[in-house]
Amino acid sequence: MTLKYLHKSISELESTPLMPMLFVGHGSPMNAVEDNEFSRMWTSLGAQLPTPRAIVCISAHWETKGTHVTIGNPLETIHDFYGFPNELYRQKYPSPGSPSLAQEVIDNIQSTHVKGDYQWGLDHGTWTILKYTYPLANIPVIQISIDHDKDAQWHYKLGKELAFLRSKGVLVIGSGNMIHNLRIMRIAGNDFNAEYGYDWAFELNDILKNKLIDGDDLALINYRSLHKDAELAIPTPEHYIPMLYVLGLRNKDEKVRFFNDKVIAASLNMTSFIVGE
């Protein structure tokens, strides 16, 4: 269930039981080189999940005008950050792309024109997680960009158009952080990953989890109404939107299971969840 699917059309393959989906709070790029509770959990996910035929990731770190999908092969490991130790810039995740899967995404999305992109690779919202979950880098991966001109409802509906992927053995991952405000971040001592936060961050983290458990997608789409300080927690939407793609793909009766449920650095949460396992 790895590279043998690289050159085959997903539509030609036998259907599978519905694949689970992930929303992953990816946090700091340093998680890619640290042995910590988050990276260890990402490692354990690889043992828990069915081995996918391919992976589709919607990352907070690829915003575009219009919707794009990576169509190149191979895909470059993008180090889209600065000011970190050299060890981080030496990291590579040499997973293949999948032009055939990218084309099927283009063909199946009807609500907007999706463009194939040969320039983008795998940004740190994708590869910092996958290097732990699938360390052999032998599963084809593509990314779908976030159209920065569209609202939350639009992205949620676009997620629904990716439903065909789940019955073909494709793992869909949304990668961001539901609470993400780096401008007012504070660190407890010298430990970036220590549990520490503003009162509103803990309050909103609980509200978000309860809405996810209840399946209240409308409230999560209208996230600015969830809490009086929601605009502090989510000043810009790009780290929140990947979660909406996962919600759009979630069936009504599917449960969520949380992991890495933690507020850190005062204004960031790592709270993540699996749907449909």
Automatic annotation (TrEMBL):
CDD domains (alphabetical): 45_DOPA_Dioxygenase
The keyword Electron transport appears for this protein: no
Superkingdom: Bacteria
Keywords: Metal-binding, Oxidoreductase, Zinc
A Pfam family matched in the record: LigB
Cofactor(s) named in the record: Zn(2+)
Bilayer-crossing regions: none
KW GTP-binding (keyword) present: no
Domain Extradiol ring-cleavage dioxygenase class III enzyme subunit B: 46-261
One annotated GO molecular function: oxidoreductase activity, acting on single donors with incorporation of molecular oxygen, incorporation of two atoms of oxygen
Family label: Belongs to the DODA-type extradiol aromatic ring-opening dioxygenase family.
PANTHER family given in the database record: 4,5-DOPA DIOXYGENASE EXTRADIOL-LIKE PROTEIN
Name assigned to this protein: Extradiol ring-cleavage dioxygenase class III enzyme subunit B domain-containing protein
Naturally occurring in which organism (per UniProt): Bacteroides graminisolvens DSM 19988 = JCM 15093
